[in-house]
Here is the input.
Amino acid sequence: MAYFNNAFNKTFIADSTLQTAGTATSALTGGQLALVDGSDFESVALAGGGAVPAITAGALAYVVQGSFYSKDTIGNNPGHGGYKESVKSKGINPRYITRLWRTNCLTATQATASLSLASDCAPCGKTQFMRVDVKGSPALRFLNHNAYAIADSANVCCIDGQEYIDPTVVLGAMGKMALADPLIKPFVAEASTNGIATATLSAGGSGYAIASGVATTGGTGTGAQVNIDTIAGDAVATFSIANVGSGYTAADVLTISGGGADATFTVDTVSAGGVIVSVTDAAGEVVQSIYTIEETQDGTYTPSTTPNAAGAKVSAKLDLVGAYVDTVFGNCSFDTRDHYNAEPVEIIVSQLDETGNPCNDCGVATKTPGSHQQTQGEEVIRDLLMSERYRQSPYNQGNADSSRIREIEMSDELLAAVDRTATYRAYYIQHSVPRFNNPTGVFDNDQYVYKVYVKCSDTAAQAQLDNLFEDLEAWAGDNGNKIVFEDTNAYW
Here is the structure.
């Protein structure tokens, strides 16, 4: 039972964790963390891997961080100081540690949506319609409701005798109209596929045979496949791109799978376009190419007048991504009440018939939700400022002279300690402090949670913190408290 039904929270920002013994808390620098023996208030050595730290028997341990403040007093008043004193946790008893865990470092991803049309999905004389929906908090804050736009292919015409319209041109026309809509434009953009546009054979290798859709390895992207069109002996002589993949860069060297796994080609150019065109021949072999929406409309792409022909069926896919960017203010005018986006937009693409109803007999729509970072710098700085408020050091904001007060009170040094654009990994220590005497006359506990933030890009600092937490786990176990440091939980 706890005296309050919530834990007291305290935030630390770590750029390093002391691994050696014998350093006094007063010697810790800003952002430097240490596990401290309560008997002498000096750091203990951290080895990690299940080593029990050398904490004096019966003594409490403390998590201590050096102060970010550069001055100890304000206004040269010796009676009002202590800003440079190290920041300390409550005393931690190994038997009362209840949980140790850390979060994962998740990279932000954009929401994606796509619409694919087969070769016979756009008959001449029939207008195609596409609807793009934008949902989520960014749209709601912008419009007070979710947004949508409807685009069509009314301006795409056939020539005499043509039966079907090239789906590439249809998707390009609808995509251009949709992305020009003022309600949709702030949230949706054409995808930058960075798929392979052109490539040159570097080495023919050995042991290969003619084949379609052969996987590749290497390079900076994923998903590229090739058709081995001709061979010379057992070496690849010519090839074509069966799947352009995504995320590649020029000069990437890819290896063609199969055979002796020694045939290679070099990526000459990539395309940032979001329209992927697939041409399927009579044998079922697919050759892909990429164009931007603009290229499908300005004459760069040559549309087929027989897209449904048996020997050259043309299908196409349009890829869109969520592209909303929130307004962010710098540290000089930072206010904890400023909104920061913690939810990506969701985009949904669908095909409609001429009556406005969903078209289910042709076209395939897909979507993938986006995700934000697990812990953004915006959240970290707010947690740190809240901890400072608990230490009776409030963050001044909302007044005309707030920026000057913050400079005087050194709040700017706290802001500088956190990279608001970065992603952080959070480490948590939860423990209890027993109340042997309290107003209720009942034995109960106060519960504390310490959050230690470290940049996801700082792998060295993470390794040091791992050692600290592994040693805390071993220390608790050595005192009969068999807790486990949760460092592999997929949900965190």
User: Anything to note?
Assistant: The first strand starts at residue 8 and ends at 13. The chain has a mean pLDDT of 89. Residues 7 and 410 are 28 Å apart (CA to CA).
